[in-house]
Amino acid sequence: MKRILSWAAIAVGVVYFFLPLVGMLEFSLKMRRGEYSLDAYRSVMGDPQFQATFGYSVVMACLTIVFGVLVVVPTVFWVRLKLPRLRPFMEFITLLPLVIPPIVIVFGYIRLFNTSSWLPLTGTTLGTDFLLMCGYAVLALPYMYRAVDTGLAAIDLRTLTEAAQSLGAGWITVLAKVILPNVLVAVLSGAFLTFAIVIGEYVFAALLDRPAFGPYLVWAGGNKAYEPAALAVMTFALTWACMMLIQLATKFSKHTRMPR
Amino acid sequence: MAYLDLSALQKSFGANQVVKSFDLGVAKGEFVSLLGPSGCGKTTVLRMVAGFETPTHGAIKIDGQDVTHLRPNQRNIGMVFQAYALFPNLTVAQNVGFGLKIAGVSAKEIIARVAEMLALIGLPEMGARYPFQLSGGQQQRVALARALAPRPRVLLLDEPLSALDAKIRVSLRAEIRDIQRKLGITTIFVTHDQEEALSMSDRVVVMNGGRAEQVGAPFEIYNHPKTRFVAQFVGTLNTLDAIVTNPAGGEVTVQGQPLRLPQAISAQAGATVGLALRPEVVHLEADADQISRGDFALPARIAAVQFLGAVIRVKAETAAGAISLDLFNRPDAPPPPLGAEVALRFRGQDVIVLA
After folding, report:
1. Could you tell me the residue range of the domain that residue A184 belongs to?
2. pLDDT digits over A11-37, tens only?
3. CB atoms near residue A227 (< 10 Å)
4. Closest partner residue to B130 among A160, A163, A255, by Cβ?
């Protein structure tokens, strides 16, 4: 009886999760009357606005990942190595982006960095892009921090650091050649999560008026019929591809393979 | 002047003074062990030499150069850790060559030196493997090769054998000592295992409570301990209470029987002093009549017999307390039966007077 109930619960979960996806996929293929086709996808891919916004978001995602890694990895490394008492504080700080709505953060940014402020980042395109990247990094912080923290917890950080130092390595070499390669899988999982967040993000990009993919998705949703469904399917596929890449990175990481 | 000179080293963590005025001079090529119980400060001394801890007071000099405030990566000191600390993302060869690469040595020289080091540790074919593909003993050998590859001025070994099983530990300690002799590298070895310290070292520093209780050759430390702590910490010890009868003549009585010690006793007549006996200097006699003149004998009853292979450890109850003694195993001489009445014989010159 218990077994049947377990399977029933799983079946309900699967239906609840997949049915809307199947419906959306089916709808995205119905652009041509009376038959299934990839017309909606063709239309989306051929749209110059799609190409521009998607390209912009991909570049922003990559920059955010680099920025996030450069900020988070040394910080978590230092806190774990030298300031372990600060860990609860760090946990709290990195959870804030989950409880503070993005709209509050972005209004704070606009207020702090507007053209009449001491650092008028919103006055130039480059400055606004930088602000957007910082905003994305903040949004991704809970995921990146936890991924890196878990990765560092899995290695003997102190001894590896000291071993490298005794062999003549300075802090940057320790981080770049010893620590980072050993938490690469964790960093990659943080990076893919960051990528997925940035690609779909709307509030920051819209309020900072940047041509990102999120606002394009919303615009397409309000102005087109079949293309939004195709875009949603593509976004899902992209997110899942990121998840699969995390798994692949773990699988093909040579030194983490255990002897059998 | 010593090659490695530690003078008046002190280290405090908050109000807790872990190392209290520690002095040690190590000659070039010497192998010195820091031996002591957990928390005695031996690892802290080693970490100060490595540069991972800054002394609260005192100085560290290597070959006349004051390195007290140099960063660990500027000291040219090799270190082997208890937990191996091989870089998991690098192959064995890359691990061994890591320090050389950092030092900017050419790729050709790195390849040659790595091959030399792998041959030295007896793993010439393992260069392409990753650390997880090696056994614990092999990993620790690679860690040793990695530490030695950049030709450090001093080698520090932080309990490198503790994580290994007993058999490998014994073989590896002989290997480490051979390599150290071959290279003539000045080495400090931290251990809480007295057998390791005694078997490997030129000199042993017995530490207690952040101080060096005694520094000396293993033979001296074992046979002539200067303090009660050293006597009790190094080796197994039987203790007996004795009453001093003639301090200048080294005469005491144990359980009413006179015993003459080879040296004068710094205590007043009538005072009680502690005597210590190693298990190997106590002999078991089945018949008290066989005991020759000059020897001291205590009547005893066999309370426990432990067969350890080459040695049989016997515990005998006497009126002065329990005494352990070691007998060499002989196939034609079975261990004494439990409860047997025997005599325990030892000589006054084998007795250690505890300070």
Report:
1. 48-251
2. 999 999 899 999 999 999 998 888 899
3. 22
4. A255
